[in-house]
Amino acid sequence: MKPGTNARAVLAVARHTTKAKTPGKAGPKLGVDIAKQPKQPKLPAPGDYVRVMRPGMHDVPTLARAVSSGRHGVTVADANGRNIKVRHEHILEHQAAPTGKERAEFASALSAAGVPVSAADRFLKLDHTGTAKRRAGLDQLALMEHLTTQFGVPIDLARVQSDATFDDAQELLSQYVDDPEGRIVPSGREPGSFEDIDDLED
Predict the structure, then answer these.
(1) What domains appear along the chain, each with residue ranges and CATH number?
(2) Which helix H or strand E contains 162, and what residues bound it?
(3) Of 11, 80, 145, 148, which one has the fewest beta carbons inside 10 Å?
(4) Considering the entire predicted model, what is its pTM?
């Protein structure tokens, strides 16, 4: 013990150190705690099932299918095929649409049980309307690979091959390719404004 220190001071320091090391007893928090924001409810996506009850239109909750959704509400298709706009507060229940894999597994289980199921339901990737998705073409994938390797465009080719439809790939390529022959849009130009460099005068 250093000269001038007493046993009481040493015990106080030791007790403070022991409390700091004790698990479950956290020290004083520095700063101000930020209140956690409540998690926003997930908006219905096209194809999801919702049970709605719009005042003045529905007397009882009605099952419908989401067509589109926005900040203020959703557009749903009811059993009669009518498109109805409904505010979010009038959605009583929300069930996500089954994925393509879930639909295929369900169709296969029904087929195995002897229930007649179409080959499209069992083997095709269907969207929320039941329409088969056309996959990205080989020429589209080859052009995307060219854009990635030669021009450094950060396209996730694996994701395109597994998830993108033909229309998705076409939309993505339209941002970089000016025409069906695959001419690349020069930087600083908008699609549709391509000029052949050989045709330009010096």
Answers:
(1) 49-95 (2.30.30.700), 98-129 (no CATH), 138-188 (no CATH)
(2) helix 157-163
(3) 80
(4) 0.43
